[in-house]
């Protein structure tokens, strides 16, 4: 083999593909949920993936969380955020928010009013926290679109936004979440292809936002290729070093998907609504703490978000 020949990376094979069907969630929001459904329940460390579309007048008014991290990635429009500790912010297209709920937070997430009446669209991923971190103080990390490195591959036919992790030798901003997660936004033009390394042993999935992407390597590389249409969550097997993705040269348009990988956690998941803990006793305690404004929920006592009031008729 020539000294400069690229090493062949063992492809990740596809374990399953799930169509994310649209459902109603929150107050008037439309959501395509893939992770956190009967077809795709346990995918440690991932608890839920929602592809949301929220029109003005809808939204997610004041609600609590405990025991998980949420990653919100805005694709279109705008979302405002406010919590009981006085944090307020706004996400614009391409912006992200990493929120660690830890021992307790109460917040509201509401859409902005777009002049053309268009909906506000994005992804929200719930990530489990290791048991020893579930009682940590809540925190936020906002990541603006301009902070995300963008790298081109395959003679410009592939564009990768390196939100978290590494692609083509380019690294993301560090220390975004407690549970290590890679998150890449990949767009492939017709005829383009990419071999994206992922950490070995990490749980890895792809969610298709637009177009049709061919996932998997050719048989020569030990793989199997599969055409995946829009709104599908494709879970890869744990073995393998890289995800192979391409778009047929004759395709009518580009394909866009997010590729996500995270460290599996060896712990029980007991979830009831916004509380994610490791036993029923802890979930029951979360309810009691929330209702009695104690053990992390003290600031919820008498608090109402300004942005949520529009829905409190």
Throw out a few tags for this protein.
single chain; 313 residues; mainly beta; Jelly Rolls; 2 domains; 7-stranded antiparallel sheet; 26 strands; Pirin
Written account of the structure:
- By secondary structure, this protein is mostly beta strands.
- It folds into 2 domains: 20-136 and 279-313, Jelly Rolls (Sandwich), CATH 2.60.120; 149-177 and 181-262, Jelly Rolls (Sandwich).
- It contains 1 helix and 26 strands.
- The protein has one helix at residues 280-292, and strands at 14-19, 22-25, 29-33, 46-54, 60-65, 68-76, 79-83, 88-91, 96-100, 105-111, 120-128, 139-143, 150-153, 158-164, 166-167, 170-171, 181-188, 193-197, 203-210, 213-215, 226-228, 232-236, 242-246, 255-262, 270-272, 275-277.
- The strands form 6 sheets. A 7-stranded antiparallel sheet has the order 1-22-19-24-17-14-13, with no helix packed on it.
- The termini are far apart.
Structure in a nutshell:
This protein is mainly β and about 325 residues long. The protein is about 5% helix and about 45% strand.
Topology (SSEs and partners):
Layout: E1 14-19, E2 22-25, E3 29-33, E4 46-54, E5 60-65, E6 68-76, E7 79-83, E8 88-91, E9 96-100, E10 105-111, E11 120-128, E12 139-143, E13 150-153, E14 158-164, E15 166-167, E16 170-171, E17 181-188, E18 193-197, E19 203-210, E20 213-215, E21 226-228, E22 232-236, E23 242-246, E24 255-262, E25 270-272, E26 275-277, H1 280-292
Antiparallel strand pairs: 1-22, 2-3, 3-4, 4-11, 5-10, 6-9, 6-11, 7-8, 7-10, 9-12, 13-14, 14-17, 15-16, 17-24, 18-23, 19-22, 19-24, 20-21, 20-23, 25-26
